[in-house]
Amino acid sequence: MRLSSALAACLTFLSTTSSADSNLSEPLSSQQILPDTFKPPQVFENVNLLRNTNLEKGYVRETVNVVIENIDPKPQDAYYIPFSAEVIDKVGGLEVRDKKNPGPAFKTEVVEYDTYSPTQFFRTTLPTPLAPKSQLTLSITYHILSRLSPLPQKIAQADKQYLQYTFSTYTPSAYPTLKQKTKVKFPTTDIPNVTGSSKPDRQGSTFTYGPYNDPVPAGASEPASVRYEFTKPIIHATHLERDIEISHWGGNLATEERYWLTNQGAHLKENFNRVQWAATQYYNPPTSALRELKVPLKAGSLNPYFTDDIGNVSTSRFRSSRKEAMLELKPRYPVFGGWKYSFRIGWDADLKSFLRKIGTPEGGHVLKVPFLEGPKMGEGVSYGKVEVRVILPEGAQNVKWETEVPLVGVEQDLHKTFMDTVGRTMIKFTAMNVVDESRDKPLIVTYDYPFIAAFRKPITIFFGILAVFTTAWAIGRLDVSIGKQS
How does DSSP assign 241-286, residue by residue? Predict the structure, then answer.
């Protein structure tokens, strides 16, 4: 189990924020495997470090701003970021940038994977080697899924829900740190339990640990634990399949999303009471159950639908205007902690809002769509695995793509539908450990669509109808009588 989970996480952070040719079909893999005795070279020093931990959603969001200095006599460009083996398979969206010069994220990849190693590392390659005694300010951002534990694990239907988060007040680092501070932001001021040797400075819903002005060696840890109120559902989609189908003839972009959803909050310690639940609908108190999902759509979206394993779900509402569209979904039942709910939604949109032509002889087109849409909730939504399929018109060729979302694999195949000849070009993108903050990050696909390819389907339909009439005429000309002709 540990081998497979860590391997999935290793694949997540490979650098994929660049265009790729259409023949890319092999999943990305780690470029370097190191033994469990590996230790990062002590060529850097963290001069000043500030970590911000945000617990306002159902997952952990981390932002680390650190000033690093090259203490080696030679220029260095490899900076290592450590994670424990228990956490690494839950980390997603790791990005490292130059805080003072905003630009593309630096290349980050997994450099160590060993089943017995307690610590795993990611290596960030600086675009320009840092000269000796020079400093650089890095901004490191990532999120951690399934790291918050309900405590108690079982509650009554109307009880408050409390979550526990265990962490180190010292920021985990592969290098010595001269000065550091950690801030933790909570969704509420109801924080009944705080443990650890360091006492935080409380200011409303924010805890501050430090500043620690004494140097801290590499790998140092100072355990702490907090328990705080979070009477909201912890929404997690174990799997999301998202299809985007382009039709040039119909001028339509059809989107369908299939969810396997669960609530990772506290379980019910008694049987569900429907009468009690119905009574709460009149005054709408805070609850750990999932009541509804709100899905913002692009303006001009049409023909939405909402179905589950039983069939059409009528408890939905669609509001559309010239500026925005909103699809409000209510599951057939409230989803309490440990409960699951699978469903699918879909809608249409005007293709002209997402596709434009390039003035090339080959008929070039550029498609720009969101990599992830889905629900937008105050408590956040996390996704274990996301598969996005872009289905291009039949005859599309020379396909290239670009996205900011870290991917674990890209596959190209054919997708056959009604009246296709050889099938449509389909590209499937797979990502792991994604959160709703990736909503609306663009997925750009470029492809050539020759003029003659646009007439493939009409020609197929014409010859199909012609074949039917020809066959009917030929059958009508057959003599099937038994007797001899006079």
Answer: EEEEEEETTTTEEEEEEEEEEEE-SPEESS---HHHHHHHTTT---
